[in-house]
Amino acid sequence: MKNHFVHTPCGPVQGAAGGADGVSVFRGIRYATAGRWEYPRQVTHWDGVYDAANFGACSFQPRAFYNEEDVPEKAFYYNEFRRGEHYDYSEDCLFLNIWAPDDAKNAPVLFYIHGGGFLGGCGHEKHFDGTAWCKKGVVAVTINYRLGPMGFLCLPELAARDGHTGNYAMFDQMAALCWVRDNIAAFGGDPGQVTLMGQSAGAMSVQQLCVSPMTNGLFRGAVMMSGGGVSRLLGAAQKAEEAYPFWQAVRQKLGAADFAALCGAEPQALFAAFAEARKEQKNPMAGCGPVVDGVFLTESAAEAAKAGRQKNIPYLMGSTSEDIVPPIVHKMAKGWARLQADQGKQPSYAYFFSRQLPGDEKGAWHSADLWYAFGTLDSCWRPFTEWDRALSEAMVSYLTNFAKTGDPNGPGLAEWLPVKKGQTQVLRFRDRDITMGGVSVARLTHTMLTKPNVGE
Questions:
Q1: Partners of 306 in the β-ladder
Q2: Could you tell me which residues are beta bridge partners of residue 110?
Q3: Nearest to 6 by CA among 183, 218, 208
Q4: DSSP labels for 26-44?
Q5: Which of 50, 125, 186, 396 is 20 to 30 A distant from 353 in Cα terms?
Q6: Which residues touch 166 (CB under 8 Å, ≥6 apart)?
């Protein structure tokens, strides 16, 4: 990749130096375009040289309309991942970022989908940098997609216009995958060797992509961190039309007389009405997330898995000891891996991360393992030790091995056994070692009941 310059099927792209010698980064590449509540149209051409020096705008989200420093319940994640950073927000947000080894050729690709409750986040916070993966010979991709009401509104007017409604964010993710399929070879990546990866709502997104009938052939493995798995509670069970009353309530709170007024509403007012409507929901997730639309999803993830209709690919998944609802997400991850074995599908691997992060008493909170998985400890304020760096190096190796072969194991690493009948242990990333073993659900339940979560 001479001078961080590549020729893609869309046109030439000028990138920049990555975080290490021999690594190039291409920021803010537009992969699709879409108007409000339109399904994305993949970008196939641009005029001139695309300037990929800077990250693209994030989707509008609640934090776009206030100062996170001034909101105590937002302080933890702000201080951890965003303090000192600047982000732009827009409805024009369908951008992706690529880190690639300069000498890459037919390299495996890790395609990461950020979390944030389908309501926040982006693909370029402090902990997201693909340099460490590039050092292991893997191309990294992170993406932005539409969030909150921009990504998940469902209304009959849209169903009448397009034949279906909802899941705009999921179609964004799929459009990014299609763009990668068509263009990643120019960056040295192998379009036939893409592994999905996501955390929290990103992991739930990965799971929906793994049960969608529209995504066949787009990826060959999947990583789900603190989300996804076997669960009747967190699957996309709601049908699009069942979401109509909620979104009609949003329209009423906005004071939009008709659909045209809704389409013309200011983003801040739309998000405010959305937040007010959510307060009246017994299940807050019901107002923001994937739905069974008959096109992208024809059934819930739970229904698909029960029938064995999830993709027959290797999965790697796990959770943290102070996670959100830790006993539930642990059992979900382990249950999915076991289901794979019981259905005779490809081997799948489960982990449990319990390293108590130095710097405070919050433990291994929800998202804590991302610093280690991305190998970005140097971007964090915490006083990490030699063990933290060894733990991160191991996690990066497991992940990149999995991207290369579908098996995380490799030289110098503790053996990671797939879950199956008679082998129910998981790989534990602990304070002093990495070893296979069991996890006490009783202890996780005690943690859930007695240790407050770090926030949003």
A1: none
A2: 140, 195
A3: 183
A4: EEEEE-EE--TT---EE--
A5: 125
A6: 152, 153, 154, 240, 243, 290, 291, 293
CA separation (Å) from 171 to 8, 68, 146, 191, 374? 23, 29, 10, 19, 26
- 60: amino acid identity, one letter: F
How does 255-280 read in b/e, with b if 16+ C-beta sit within 10 Å?
ebeeeeebeebebeebbbbbbebbee
Q: Identify the three-state secondary structure at position 317.
A: strand
> Residues near 449 by Cβ (< 8 Å), separated by ≥ 6?
none
| Measured CA angle at 400 (ends 390, 420), to 5 deg | 95
How far is Cα 68 from Cα 78, in angstroms, rounded to an integer? 7
Place of tokens 């909620």: 246
Helix (H) or strand (E) segment spanning residue 310:
none
Q: Which of 94, 79, 221, 73 is nearest to 168 (CA)?
A: 94
Torsion over CA: 304, 307, 312, 315 (sign): positive
Cα dihedral value 45, 48, 49, 52, nearest 10: -60
CB atoms within 10 A of CB 359: 12
pLDDT tens-digit profile, the chain (456 residues)? 789 999 999 999 999 999 999 999 999 999 999 999 999 999 999 999 999 999 999 999 999 999 888 888 889 999 999 999 999 999 999 999 999 999 999 999 999 999 999 999 999 999 999 999 999 999 999 999 999 999 999 999 999 999 999 999 999 999 999 999 999 999 999 999 999 999 999 999 999 999 999 999 999 999 999 998 987 666 557 899 999 999 999 999 999 999 999 999 999 999 999 999 999 887 766 678 999 999 999 999 999 999 999 999 999 999 999 999 999 999 999 999 999 999 999 999 999 999 999 999 999 999 999 999 999 999 999 999 999 999 999 999 999 999 999 999 999 999 999 999 999 999 999 999 999 999 999 999 999 999 988 876
pTM of the model: 0.97
In contact, 159 and 165? CB cutoff 8 Å: yes
Helices (H), 121-266: 131-135, 148-152, 156-162, 168-183, 201-211, 244-254, 259-263
Length of the chain counted residue by residue: 456
Residue type, 142: T
Provide DSSP, 225-243: ESS-SS-SSSS---BGGGG
Q: Using N-to-C axis directions, what is the helix angle for 244-254 and 267-279, rounded to 10°?
A: 120
